[in-house]
Amino acid sequence: MNDMRLIERAVDMDDIKISARDVQVYYGDNHAIKDVNVDIQDKTVTAFIGPSGCGKSTFLRCLNRMNDTIDICRVEGDIHLDGEDINDKRVDPVQLRAKVGMVFQKPNPFPKSIYDNAAYGPKIHGMAKNKAELDEIVERALRRGAIWDEVKDRLDAPGTGLSGGQQQRLCIARAVATEPEVLLMDEPCSALDPIATAQVEELIDELRQNYSVVIVTHSMQQAARVSQKTAFFHLGNLVEYDETGKIFTNPEDERTESYITGRIG
Amino acid sequence: MTDATAHTTPEPGSKSSILTVDPHTAKRHAAEGRFKIYGIIAICIGLFFLAALLIAIVSNGTRAFTQTRVVLEIPLVAAEIEAAEAYIVKTSKYNDLVGEALTGAMSDAGIETEMEPKELLMMLSGSAGANFRNFVLENPDAVGGSHQFEFLASSRVDGYLKGRVTREALVDDKNLDAAHLDLVDQMREAGLVERSFNWDFIFGADASESRPEAAGIGVSMLGSFFMMLVVLAFALPIGIAASIYLEEFAPQNRFTDLIEVNIANLAAVPSIVFGILGLAVFIQVMHLPQSAPLVGGLTLTLMTLPTIVISTRASLKSVPPSIRDAALGVGASKMQAVFHHVLPLAMPGILTGTIIGLAQALGETAPLLLIGMVGFIASNPPDGLASGFLDPNSAMPAQIYEWAKRADPAYYERAWGGIIILLLFLMTMNIIAILLRRKFERRW
Amino acid sequence: MPTLWIALFALVLSVVGYALGRRRAMVSADGDIRNLHSRPNYYGVNAALTGLVPAFLVLALWTLGQPLFLQNSVSGMISDAQIEETGSLGLVMSDVRRVADGLDQAVAEGAMDAETAGNVRIDLTDVRARLGEVGVALGSAVSQETLRAAQAYRAQSSFGDLLKTIVVLGIALAGISYAVMRTNATFRARNVVESGVRWLLIAAASIAILTTVGIFLSLIFNTVEFFRLYPAGDFFFGTTWQPSFTGRGGSSQLGVLPLLWGTFYISLIALAVAVPIGLFSAIYLSEYASPRVRSVAKPLLEVLAGIPTIVYGLFALLTVGPLLLRVFGDDTVGWMQGGTAVMTAGLVMGIMLIPFVSSLSDDIINAVPQAMRDGSLGLGATHSETVRQVILPAALPGIVGAILLAASRAIGETMIVVLGAGAAARLSLNPFDAMTTVTAKIVSQLTGDSDFSSPEALVAFALGMTLFVITLGLNVLALYIVRKYREQYE
Prior knowledge:
Chain A is an alpha/beta fold.
């Protein structure tokens, strides 16, 4: 397993998956995100860091239009996925979200069996022709979620009965089962203990092989460990966006430096 | 595991555009639309039922608020009246007098008929003679002159003018003939018949089964009123006391749990069971008078208590703990903190809940049937407080039930009319509750 | 109403006690309230409550207990032969009470003087006729034995009332004087009053338990009495319901099964109407409707819940019944014979239950955490897929609980079935037949009857017991499920 971690970090660094231009988000009268411009590359882990309430999660939710579900939330600006505007009238958020999957802060397995949790996405998107194919997809997803070995004997057990770390990996498996192209992760480790966190981080690194991963995190160490690119948000502004190494060793903006060194946050 | 991951890595889904909707997704959206439509249909059905109910009530009930009367000028001849008073069944003689007057009035108006006065009298309510006599007895001075009477028309005539009774329907009817209706048409043209607002329905008493035109809901309204007084006098203090104990003082123990479970269950016990309880405890054991508003009120109190306790506890709970802490902090006892600070702050919420509980009790019928508040004619309004609480009476919903049982379309009309009045009361109470809540709603 | 007067008098005493207690405290503190342990009002309230509470307690217990006591002491005077003749002790006793009341009334109206009433004899006076004059109707001629018992009943009851007055007022006085004696500046009146008030609060809270106990006792005693007169096996397993109206047992067949079937059938139809409509409304209102639509539609639907059941009963009897008859009656398919039918009652009851199901389900659907919705939507599920495959399964236990509560409502509903379902007890599968239910029969067996000694009247209590047990079971189960469900997401 260790060899997987050593895969070099620069693959297809120029292939831009998502590009956001002048994104503004308002919650009612509150201007939550201001003029954010960012390009997210394919097969890369991009980390969003910043103090609580800086808007990083809000921005993440713009990327697959999850903010549509909040009545008072209004998004302006252009976000392009593979060159297509995701806020275009013709875009079906359902199809968009199938391509841009999401994992949430708190593990939220459905109150169903482990199997049904993993099979949920493929079923609704009609990805399997028959039961055997579905079984295969579920197994593949659970393996990629690095949870297969722990649950293969009790696929019929309820997903809510797993431990926190297992639940979160199940949720990741559930998200990758639909074969998304981008995986958004909103503080996926904040509810987990250190061991589970390590497992999930390992997983993120593996996922990078096939997906563009965007992860929001509170922990700077985590950003440093898993990401290749890092964006620093502060008070709704994107302050700095660069190679992870550069952000952590040689930030350009003094706010970034203050945050990295623990003076604000 | 490494192997598995490496081998099964697929190409991420084909690079379909998100700008075009693929057929599978289109199908799913169709399902989405259908699902949404089911929801809209469900709500529309619910609202349709509501509308149907209201339309049925209004269209059937408003007719009870007007009443057809026959206007007759009757000379009060002393000799005739003395003769009638000498008779054993006095009202029948008076009836004859009314009949003569009617015949006279009709020939005056140029209406020709071969009917006997007795037959003509079928167009009037059976109470006409009694009304005549009562007037004479109350106004002895008027004898010698004449007086203009407005007699209630019989329910068939009333129904005919309201469009409820048709000539075909009278074929087998022994109370009125189709020929009468022709007369009624002519009398209406002659101005002998008029239709006016029916105050007697709102303030009057129930009448016997054969005289629906004279029945009113007023007395049973008083019965309901006295019952509500009883409910208010018992349910409010007991409900508040119980809620204060449970919310502020009760320790976490078995006894408290027992009370809570009991209250939750009582709130869902069928109302008729409370009727059985009232019958057994208040009448069988305590020998309180049957059919008395006091018994009805006590029974409804037991039924309403859980509702009031539940809403009172909710309003006590909504007073933030900081208020209690502040009072305790300046040296008030727990009891003082509750009675001086928490209770006044919770009062609007408590009153709202109480009014809603009262409204519920006001509309409740089933328990009243068991403690005997139906099946008799509440003919006189109670005189005085004690009689109001203890004399047999009916209540609005019980009176409506009674009318519905009498299987006479004229009484059905009264029942619908009674429902309009009952609903007006309930609506008023609910609006008061809503206004109270609006006015005193506090956000902490 | 002597009891009321006693209560009022005790109340007046307590007001006097309040004034005395307060004044004594002020005097012992030399008129300076700073010398008092508690505020002066507490001393007054202490005196008032110490007298009033025990007095009221004794008054209530005495008023409840006296009839029972009299019943026992007087029933000893009734011979077995008399009981045999009349049918049961209960009937004889109700005669005794009626005669006693009649004598009271005769005395009150001056038709008899008190002495005559006390020793009037059956062979010298026609008691029935004399009582008839003052408006007390007796069904049969009064036997000497009954009359004697009635006179004894009167004598003991008036003695009891006198004793009650003395005892209650004595207690009130004693309590007040004790409290006033104890009053001085250092007396901790507030603490005493507060612990007293606390007990009052506990007593008020205990009324919930008392009510349940009262329901249980009033059902169980009369039910046991019924099963003494009518075999329990025939009641629970009999398939015929045919009470004889002549009373006095023997010819009645009182099998509960047809009633249970009617109840069950009507409830089933009601749920078949209310559950889909209520559930879909709740889903639409909580998941799809805009705040404006929600703020209009939700209260409008809830209006249906605020309408009294008598209105629904009338609606069933006069609107829905005739309408159904026109559609399914003899003129068309001939399935329906009359307006009152299982279908009529079930349909209208279903309408009544719509808001019940919808607002309960609404609460329950809203209790499903937002994370579930996000999780599903984040995977690209449509809203309806999320509702059907994630939210509803998650909310299922709660919804089942809500449906059980609705079922218990339907089973216990009275007015709609009394007016809309018909009176004939029958076991039939045709939903357009008239059938009857447990609640409707409770009403018809108990209305207008004040004697609870024939099996035909007592059966109502057995029916009530059956109803109570079924609904209680459903409620307990439903509340348990709903509580478990809420705990899961808290």
